[in-house]
Write a structure and sequence with these properties.
286 residues, alpha/beta, Rossmann fold, Methionyl-tRNA Fmet Formyltransferase, Chain A, domain 2, 2 domains, 7-stranded mixed sheet, 4-stranded antiparallel sheet, 7 helices, 11 strands, 29% helix, elongated
Length: 286
Amino acid sequence: MSTPLRICVISSGPDEFSTIHAACSDSGHRPVAYFHGRSLRSGGPNLGDAGEATAEILKVVPRGMDLLLPGNIEGLALSLESYRPDLLIVFGFAWKLPRSVLDIPRHGAINIHVSMLPKYRGPAPLLWAIRNGDPTGGITVHRMDEGFDTGNVLAQKDGIPLADDINWSNYCTDAMPVVYELLRTALTRVANEDPGEPQDHSEATYAGFMEEEFARIRWSDAAHTIHNQVRTHRFMRSPESPIAEVNGTRLIVKRTSLEPTEGQRVVCGDGTPLWITESTKLPTVS
């Protein structure tokens, strides 16, 4: 076996950290520090669940492992330099890392991206897969460069189920064993200084954050479109959206069904009915 790598990990939740740690350790490598991505951009405000997420991560942090919460790129760079990593592994981190950070680890950085790159490059690949009604999704481990998800592919696999009632927990049940196996393959290639395979940039699509209008339901849309809109917001845990008006009443729609069931029946723009099975009434505006 090659010399064990010193690895720093940037991620966003306990499942991600646990899976990465197991893949590294089982491959004979040594994670030396965890970094939690607590904001969507360098210098930006904390995410609403940053405190809760940090508390959950602490439950899985191995004894003696440092957990850092960088607030900006400069702080992240200084911390990374102090750990002298051979490799940086990133999973679920929205910041765009500059070359000055990517060059700190001896073997650079690799990213775990929840799509079959070059499809759904960007910060919200899983949200767009749900929004588009994809029955399955993919996972890619790729080298990081200065673009968004444009680096060479080290390992990838398609066919991860995206359940109709998808949430992070049931997604992880299927996805994390795949992440584990793909990461072990990628670590072997990194240790052997294998550059990986270039992506076909002509096939690339972009998955950005949801636009403001996506928080409003338009009954003129097709039933499947609205159903997937509601699924996406539920996966995002959006407590105040999407909002719809039904018979003069404004609702936060939390769950819908394409099959006949108990609930409010609404005919959508394609002539197909949709049943609202869970909602919250909004106060009337005077």
